[in-house]
Amino acid sequence: MDMNELLEPFVRMLDTAATPATVRAIEHGGSPDALWSEIAESGFLDALVAEEHGGAGLSLADIEPLIEALGARAVPLPVAETMVARALLAQAGVTAPEGPVVLVTSLAQPVPCGLVAQAALVDCGDELVLCDMAQLSPAPTGVTNALAARISSKPDGVRLPRPASGLRAIAAVQRAALIAGAAARLCDVTTAYASERVQFGKPIGRQQSLQQMLALMAEDMIACRIAAQLGASQGIAVSLATAATAKITTSAAAPRIAASAHAVHGAIGISEEYDLQLLTRRLHQWRLADGSEGYWSQVLGTARLASPQPTVDWIRETVFA
């Protein structure tokens, strides 16, 4: 299948349904049902489900551009997480919920989109548990307009086998792809603004110092995309080392990209009515979600030190396997 045939209708659907106005409305307490219905009716939620279970049978690498598209539009629903959850549930012979499903990789950390999810697939260390989100007592984090939730109850529901690397590895790869998508959109928006904003008789984009800033943003954006593609290349059963590489790269770049975007835009960039903050806020959230670059650096370093192999050989066999 030509991936453009998959991506183009998905992007058109998102551009129509997930407008900045819709994102703001949901962040301010509006119902996400209409947006979710539009996404569910498109059929993309079963992209990762095997064909014998009624899905499209695509790989995570196939849908990685779709996850980037979600990140580029700041979609306020756990669409990518639901895709993974539905694939794992179908594999285990469990009927998936109709609504949004979040992946809970830690009971101690905020769950992105937890306030708009119907169900949760929780990693309990030795097994996965599918339960209603309400059972976990989700509560706002206190961050303005954030849809993440803190949870205070233990899950009790349908149990299914846990992937070898747990849910955190695949969740980290999804965050990496979301960051890559948001980074690409921020680069486009910031470059366009620099070309249009005129000061002292010329566009600010002609200033050499600002051109350098945009060039560094573009470098980080491309690094994020490569890292996300690497993480997705191993599918849902991604290794910890590969997931760590993807998340370290993207999480480390996220604050630099956000800072550069705001530096170029100046005061208008921090205003609520301007769309820039819809993306930069999410960059900071996704940076921390499912392990920051510090957490994953420790995971990667521990794995490297445990092996007697030369570093280059270890990277080839472990990260790029």
Describe the structure.
The protein folds into two domains: 3-161, no CATH class; 167-319, Butyryl-CoA Dehydrogenase, subunit A, domain 3 (Up-down Bundle), CATH 1.20.140. The chain is 55% helix and 8% strand. It contains eleven helices and eight strands. The protein has helices spanning 3-17, 20-27, 33-41, 60-72, 79-91, 166-196, 208-232, 240-265, 276-288, 293-305, 311-319, and strands spanning 101-104, 119-123, 128-132, 139-140, 149-150, 158-160, 198-199, 202-203. It has a four-stranded mixed β-sheet. The protein is globular and about 65 Å long.
What order do the helices and strands come in, and which of them pair?
Layout lengths: L2 H15 L2 H8 L5 H9 L18 H13 L6 H13 L9 E4 L14 E5 L4 E5 L6 E2 L8 E2 L7 E3 L5 H31 L1 E2 L2 E2 L4 H25 L7 H26 L10 H13 L4 H13 L5 H9 L2
Parallel strand pairs: 1-2
Antiparallel strand pairs: 2-3, 3-6, 4-5, 7-8
What is the chain-wise order of helices and strands?
HHHHHEEEEEEHEEHHHHH
Basic shape? globular
Biggest sheet, in brief?
Answer: 4 strands, mixed
SS field, number of helical segments: 11
Q: Mean of residue pLDDT?
A: 95
Distance between the termini: 24 Å
Helix-and-strand structural type: alpha+beta
Note the beta-strand portion.
5-15%
Q: Please compute the radius of gyration using only Cα atoms.
A: 20 Å
Number of domains: 2
Q: Regarding quaternary structure, how should these chains be classified?
A: single chain
Strand order of the largest sheet: 1-2-3-6
Kindly state the percentage of residues in helix.
40-55%
Overall strand count: 8
Instruction: Pick out the low-confidence regions.
Output: none
